[in-house]
Amino acid sequence: MAQGDITDPPGAREKLLETTSAIMREGDVVDISLSELSLRSGLNSALVKYYFGNKAGLLMALLDRDWQAIVTSVDALVAKDGWDPEAKLRRHISKVVDTFYAVPYLNRLTMRMVREGSPTDAKRIADSYLSPMYRAYEQLIGDGVKAGAFRPVDPQLFYFTVTGAVDRFFSARLVLQHCFDTDTLTEGLRDRYREHTIDIIMAGILAR
Q1: Which of 26, 142, 157, 171 has its CA 20 to 30 A from that of 6?
Q2: Comparing C-alpha atoms, which of 172, 183, 181, 136 is closest to residue 156?
Q3: Per CATH, the architecture of 61-205 is what?
Q4: Would you list the domain boundaries of the chain?
Q5: DSSP state at residue 9
Q6: How buried is 150 (Cβ within 10 angstroms: 0-12 exposed, 13-18 middle, 19+ buried)?
Q7: Within 13 Å of residue 152, how many CA atoms lie on the same side as its CB?
């Protein structure tokens, strides 16, 4: 298919999104240049306008792609039968660490799109992604309190605790570089941080 002289190769839309994601992961940034996107993807940068309207539309589409996968996963975990509340919360924190390892720009991109987008865009992000996450925390923590596994904690503050701990680490490549002589977030480092984060956070919520 073509529009004017712009060819629309199969899979081009998804390739633009994945290349944008790769540029932001590797550069530890929440912005891209269309020229770099074209060079890395091998696609005409005019396809950004064709598929997304403009660069802001591309970034919003990437945010939607990443968040939809997260919300779907959390909803499935909350609905899962046969798991006790502690196992569910440990599993959730583990998945949060894995998610930020894969897309470390997520929280910063979310805040950028909320700040720079229209009020309608900001409300859609909140209603579609942030509010469902908060409701999931209400459910996970509430079930644990009822079962006597967790002490009562504020689900909203707990959300910021988990997100903040993980976002801070996976957006800290410059700190790793200058303080610890590495700027590589390896799978081994991810695994160590996953276990550390689960231990620290669960110690703060488990009933004593």
Answers
A1: 26
A2: 136
A3: Orthogonal Bundle (1.10)
A4: 1-53, 61-205
A5: -
A6: buried
A7: 1
| Structural contact between residues 180 and 111, judged by C-beta atoms closer than 8 angstroms | no
Question: What DSSP state is assigned to residue 171?
Answer: T
Helix ranges, the chain (H): 12-27, 34-41, 46-52, 55-79, 85-102, 106-116, 119-125, 131-146, 155-170, 173-180, 187-205
Least confident of 2-6, 81-85, 99-103, 134-138: 2-6
- Which pLDDT score is estimated for 1? 45
DSSP state letter for 206: B
Decide the pairing of beta strands 6-7 and 2-3. Answer: antiparallel
Report how far apart, in Å, the C-alpha atoms of 112 and of each of 25, 90, 164, 166, 177 are.
16, 29, 16, 18, 25
Taking only the tens place, the pLDDT of each residue in 89-124 is: 999 999 999 999 999 999 999 999 999 989 999 999
* pLDDT attached to residue 190: 87
Please tell me the pTM assigned to this model: 0.86
**What are φ and ψ of residue 99, in 5° steps?**
-65, -45
Minimal CA–CA distance to 20: which of 2, 46, 39, 1? Answer: 39
